[in-house]
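Schema walkthrough. Field components (list of strings):
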Amino acid sequence: MATASAIPTQVVAPAKDAAAATPPKDERDQDRQRRRRLLISFAVVTVALLALTLGATTIVQFVAGAGSAVFFGALLVLTTTLAGLGLWLAWRAHLARAALLLVGAILLATFVTQIMLSGTTNAGLAFLLFAVYPLVILSAGVLADRRFILATAGAAALLSLLANFIAANNGMLLLFALAQESIATAIMYYFIAGYQANMQDLERTRQAYERMVRIDSLKEQFITSVNHELRNPTMAMLGYIELLQIPRNQSAGERLKLIVDEANDAGQGLRALINSILETRRMDQGIEDFVPQPVNVRDALTTAMRLIDPREANMTGREVRVRVSPALAIMGDRVHLQQILTNLISNAVKYSDLDAPVDVAAARVIDVQYSEGRWGRKTPVEREMVEIMVRDYGLGIPPEDVPVLFQRFARLPRDLASKVLGNGLGLHLCKALAEVMGGHIWLESTGIPGKGTTFYVRLPIATNAVPVPLPDEAHM
Amino acid sequence: MEAPTPQRYTVLVVDDNPQLTKLMAMGLPDFGDFDVVTADDGIEGLIKCAELQPACMVLDVMMPGLDGYQLVRALRGDPVTAHIPLILLTAKVQEKDQYIGLASGADQYLCKPVLPSELSRAISAALHISAAERERKQVALAEEAFDDPGKR
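Field assembly_structure (string):
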C-alpha cells in the first residue's frame, strides 16, 4: 500500500543502456565528423594537384603547339570542377557522394591524360600514370569504407584495361598495373577492416565511459534528492516520538491519537521512500525477456489506471478523458504497456492542478522513420503503429529540460524543491520499455504553465487483430 | 524542559513540508513559551512576518518560490525585520551550504533531523542574541569571505 514510486511493484525493469548492442547515433556522428574533415583536406589537395598537373600539361602542350592542349584545358576545367564540387559536398557533409566525386575526378583525369599523351612525344608519361591507379585505391580506403575500396578497384582495373587497349597495348605493362592494383586493394581492404574494428572498439569504450560518468552524476543527484527526502520524514517521526515521551501527552485523548497518527504517517513515508530506492536496483535487470503478443490497449489502460498509487497521484475527482477504440491492440508485452501508461498518467496527474483534466487517446498511425541508404540517400521506412497520447494541462516542461527528461534519475530542479514525490526513474523506464517493444516515445510541451505537456508513445500494431476503425468513428 | 520565561514569544515557522510545520506547531509549545505560526513558502513567510512581527523565525532552505537564503536576505535588508532572530533549518548538510546560510545573515544553521526540544533550545538562545553580537558575527564572516573568496 505504501509503494510510492511511479513504478508498480511487479516491475522488472530496463535497460542495458542503448550502447551495448548497436553503436548509438552519437558514435556514428563522431565517425562522420572525422571523415568529413579528412575528405575536406583530401579534396583541397586533389583540386590543387589536378589544377597544377593538368595546368602544367596544358601549357607544355600549348607551347609545343600540340592540338591536345585544348583537350587538356577542357579536362582541367572539368575535373577541377568535379573535385571542387566534391569539396563542397564534403563541406555540406554528403560524405559518400563527395568521396565518389573526388575519386572519380582523379580516375577520369588519369585515364584521359593517358589517352592524350599516348600519341605524343611524352608517351612515356602515359606508362608512368598507371601508378596513379593503386594510389587512388589507397585513398579510397582512407576516404570511405570497404565497399568503396572494391568499387574503386573495379573502376581502376577497367580503366587500366581500356587505357592499355587504346594507348599502350603492352601485355606485360597491363599485368604489372593490375598486379599493383590488386595488391593495393588487398592491403587497403584488410587495413581498413582492422582500422574500423579498432575505431569501433575505441568509440564504444569512449561511449561507455561517458555513459558511466553521466550515470555517476545522475546518481549523485539522486542521492542528494533522497538525502533531502529522507530527512523530512525522519525528523517528523523522531519529533512526534519525542512528544510522546512527555508524560502530559501520554494520557489517552485526541492529542495522543494525533501524535501517533502523524508519527505513523511519517514512518509510512519513509517506507515508501526506501521502496523507491529499491526500484533503482531493479532497473538493472533485463526487460528484454518477453514474448510479443497482441495486447488490447483499452484493457491495459483500465488496469494501468487502477495501479496508479493513490498516495502519489490523487485520482479522485479527476477527469480522465479517454478516447481509445476497444479493438485497438499493440504487439508487445502487457505488463510493459501497463507500466508505461501508469507512469505517464500518474505523471500527468502529479504535475497538474487537482481539477485539471487529463486526456488519453490512442489511434492507428503510419510511422515514418528514415534510414540512411547508399551514398547517403535517406529512404523512408513506413510502418503501421499505434500512437498513444497522454496529455495534461499542468505546468509544462521548459524546453531546456526536455533533453534530460528521459535520463535515469533525472528530476527537474523545480520538482526537487517541491512536494511532488518521485525518484526520477519513471520516464527513463517508459523509454526503455517502449524501445524494447520496438517503439519510441517523445513529448511536446511549450513550457507554459496551463498549456501542459503531451507525451506520445508509438508501439508496433498487432497485425492479426481485427481491423480498427479510424479514431473519428469510435469514441469511448 | 526549558526554564519558563515570563513572556510568550511568537515563532514563525516557514517550511514547505506540511508534516514538519504541523510537528512544530504542535511540539514547540511543549518545550517553551512559544506561540507557533506557520507558513508554507517564502512569500507567505514574508507576508506573515510583516503582519505579526514574530520574536523569532525558523526557515527551511529548499522551498518553491523564495528559498531560505533569499528570505533571510530580504528580512535582513528591511530595517523593520532586520533585528528578528533567524534560524535556518535544512536538509542541506554540506559545510558550503552552512556557510552560505550564515553569511546571508541567519543566526543559526541547523541540519534536519532536529528534535522539537533541540529546536526550542536554539530558539531560546537566538532570542537572546543582541544586535551588537549579530553585527560582530557578520563582520567576522565577511572578513573570512574576503580572505578566502573562493569559499563562497
